Amino acid sequence: MSKAPMRVAVTGAAGQIGYSLLFRIASGEMLGKDQPVILQLLDLPQAQKACQGVMMELEDCAFPLLAGMLATDDPNVAFKDADVCLLVGARPRGPGMERADLLTANGAIFTVQGKAIAENAKEDVRVLVVGNPCNTNALIAGSAARKVGRTNPANYHGMLRLDHNRALSQLANKTGRPVASFKQLVVWGNHSPTMYADYRNCTSNGDNVKALINDAVWNNDTFLPTVGKRGAAIIDARGLSSAASAANAAIDHVRDWVLGSDEWVTMGVPSDGSYDIPAGIVFGFPCECKGGSFRIIQGIAIDDYSRDKLNKTLKELTDERDAVKDML
Ligand SMILES: NC(=O)c1ccc[n+]([C@@H]2O[C@H](COP(=O)([O-])OP(=O)(O)OC[C@H]3O[C@@H](n4cnc5c(N)ncnc54)[C@H](O)[C@@H]3O)[C@@H](O)[C@H]2O)c1
Ligand SMILES: O=C(O)C[C@H](O)C(=O)O
After folding, report:
1. Class for domain 160-327, per CATH?
2. SS3 61
3. In a 10 Å sphere around its CB, with 0-12 CB exposed, 13-18 middle and 19+ buried, how is residue 220 labelled?
4. Do domains 6-158 and 160-327 have the same CATH topology?
5. Is CB count within 10 Å lower at the N or C end of the chain?
6. Nearest to residue 121, comparing CAs of 73, 156, 92?
7. Cα angle at 47 between 72 and 249, to 5 degrees?
8. With contact defined as beta carbons under 8 Å apart, do 205 and 183 qualify?
9. C-beta of residue 193 within 8 angstroms of C-beta of residue 297
10. CA-CA distance, 310 to 326, in Å (whole number)?
11. How many CA atoms lie within 13 A of 163 on its CB side?
């Protein structure tokens, strides 16, 4: 017997990430090749016509798993009974901007949507915020949801998976090893240039990657800035912010969360106090996913260099939190 459909709400559905994301969800890449889905598209009133065009194309793909879809400008309709919400809709940054510059422009979106999710979605809804600055937007959405009380605030995540995937590819380029050989990578902190991509515990076919590379200068002067500033490099090259790779990372995050992963994955999740990160701050942590839930991996040694990096990215996040305190 076929499974009951899962409802997936996608905001910013008419935007560039939406255009990469929706077709892959409908084809079963996110929730499984045996899992029917109903897509619930949210965008602004002026983008409804474009949403209709996207839905025409989805229809023309004749995806066997696509059990229904709708487009709306009303968050209460879009999030109704949703199992998964992908909060993409927000303004992207342009050349010369940092993601934190979007805080006030985009933050207000997430108070409204966090509340609408908590009032309308399934109680065990999983929420992934992609719209930037995604960690603090997830904090805002989770805080709005906490006030309503129905849903689990730990399920309001920010997307660090793109940074994790970027770091994997840089390690593969450096070592000449396949991307899939790398295990136990983590990107700590904020989705911003302060993030700390940490391969101290990473292995490749059983070899310790730090020992294999053995190049502290490359780590500090090439690897970390390349991963941290990759979004800006893409904006510079494309004139637009990353879209297909961002959609791919969102698929990876939710797929691992729902279906499980044998490997460590980086997820931006509300801190439970682990690694001395204050509770509630949405921070990139190493996680393992099993049985539909996630858990922060414990017991990783934090040396002085790493503590300094964690403190820098945490300071940025606490500053962002303070800047939006009226929204929390
Ligand atoms: N976390 C990450 O790794 C990551 C990666 C890439 C992009 N992003 C961010 O994702 C966001 C979207 O990027 P994009 O390239 O798709 O932008 P885009 O401008 O192409 O699309 C954004 C869409 O959101 C819609 N929108 C705006 N406000 C909305 C609201 N209140 N409710 C619903 N929809 C709304 C717009 O109408 C538009 O269709 C940006 O904030 C961008 O910075 C994050
Ligand atoms: O950098 C941006 O503004 C877009 C996105 O967050 C990215 O990392 O590509």
Report:
1. alpha beta
2. coil
3. exposed
4. no
5. N
6. 156
7. 85
8. no
9. no
10. 26
11. 35
pLDDT in tens, the chain (328 residues): 689 999 999 999 999 999 999 999 999 999 999 999 999 999 999 999 999 999 999 999 999 999 999 999 999 999 999 999 999 999 887 778 877 788 888 888 999 999 999 999 999 999 999 999 999 999 999 999 999 999 999 999 999 999 999 999 999 999 999 999 999 999 999 999 999 999 999 999 999 999 999 999 999 999 999 999 999 999 999 999 999 999 999 999 999 999 999 899 999 999 999 999 999 999 999 999 999 999 999 999 999 999 999 999 999 999 999 999 999 9
CATH architecture of residue range(s) 6-158: 3-Layer(aba) Sandwich (3.40)
- Are 324 and 142 spatial neighbours (Cβ–Cβ below 8 Å)? no
User: Where do the domains of the chain lie?
Assistant: 6-158, 160-327
Q: H/E element holding 209?
A: helix 209-213
- Given a contact cutoff of 8 angstroms between Cβ atoms, the answer to whether 67 and 5 are in contact is yes
Q: Ligand 2 pocket: which of 17, 88, 132, 226 to mutate (most atoms <8 Å of CB)?
A: 132
231 among annotated binding-site residues: no
Residue type, 101: D
The verdict on whether residue 93 carries a ligand-binding annotation is: yes
Ligand 2 within 6 A of 106 CB?
A: no
User: pTM, whole model, 2 decimals?
Assistant: 0.98
Is 191 a residue of the active site? yes
Place of tokens 């915020």: 129
